[in-house]
């Protein structure tokens, strides 16, 4: 069959989660004439990591996540990562604001709601860390509304579920930012896909599996199998995005691009304790993060979260990690062994050698009894009743393994964008805080893979309209940060009244 005989599109996006949905809408807003197709293995979008019960979904903004502010050997606190994540989340809010302004996107209340973000520590060492962290963060305009207290009466007002039943002499402290959020990325993905479906030359197709990726003179030939009928079709596309969560690594390997060689994946499953009892839920209106146990990985940071899903509030506590060789919750146990290649076996063995503590931690988590899980919850919520909580199985995360010249291989807990040199294909690998900073990641992808268009007056003008201020500007310009953030909060119906006295801001 001649190349011209194949169906042609401009963009194929694999996976109907938050990443692909965001990128598809961005590209369609920048170029209304673009022809694109989203293909998804499941029978609807947001089934895997974008599903609200498959992730913590906090709306990561660096406000309460203590692992984003590491302590140096001299006791100082590095806030750079928290600032970066915060401003990236502000960029996400700008994009959602732009969509709300279009008038056809729907209500922001379906996917984002104001929920205070708190950090909570126990013991003298924890208090010393939190106090130093607060002193460092309050100096930056992104965290100017943060409050700190060691007063237990104040903490009982901030988190009434967590204080009763504690020893009177237990040293505890907390910080709070009222302007935190809870984001339902499943609902947001659904709205993005619905918005996209109303545009011309946009298709979202379910029960479709990508079985082949072959380079052509003008891009890629994508082989797509219908999992219900078994029919196979082939599409020529100028650009392909592999946004299939844990499934992106096998697809990247299928592409054969040199930039993807050496990458491996370490799958980690998760579990949560979930409470839907209205009498319990109404006593906790917050997302409260604490410190991971000594020697535990960042993924183990315990937190008690208010979640708003389909208008109903629930509580999630965890995470409790686990291990499965699947790369997706609905994947295959052969995913991990089939991902091993000559180019990545070295880095994967090096990571196995250097991360024995992680392996031991995961084994311990898998072996936990329900009573042990409840013991961890009771360190947050001393009077927790086992009958109010049930186990919720979360989604799969595939942590990145990549080559390292010194160690042979390293395990990363963030996200990584891998693109071909010619920009014709790109994949997103990794996990947290991916969803909350999706828009910044997809803007980086557009800049790398569509450089000529980004430099054009048309795209540059549209990007400026969508994004009045990008990350680095928001980091440096306090007045502009406050202006842009307040505008987003107003449109997204997030405006809250701070309890911090004006003199302390």
From TrEMBL:
Q: What class of enzyme is it?
A: oxidoreductase
Sorted keywords for this record are: FAD, Flavoprotein, Oxidoreductase, Tricarboxylic acid cycle
Record-annotated membrane-spanning stretches: none
For this protein, what reaction is catalysed? (S)-malate + a quinone = a quinol + oxaloacetate
Q: Which cofactor does it need?
A: FAD
Which InterPro entries does this chain map to? Answer: FAD/NAD-bd_sf, MQO
Q: What is its EC number?
A: 1.1.5.4
**GO MF annotations, alphabetized:** (S)-2-hydroxyglutarate dehydrogenase activity; L-malate dehydrogenase (quinone) activity
Q: Which family does this protein fall into? A: Belongs to the MQO family.
By its UniProt entry, which NCBIfam families does this protein fall under?
A: mal_quin_oxido, PRK05257.1-1, PRK05257.1-4, PRK05257.2-1, PRK05257.2-4, PRK05257.3-1, PRK05257.3-2, PRK05257.3-4
Protein name as catalogued: Probable malate:quinone oxidoreductase
Q: Which gene encodes it?
A: mqo
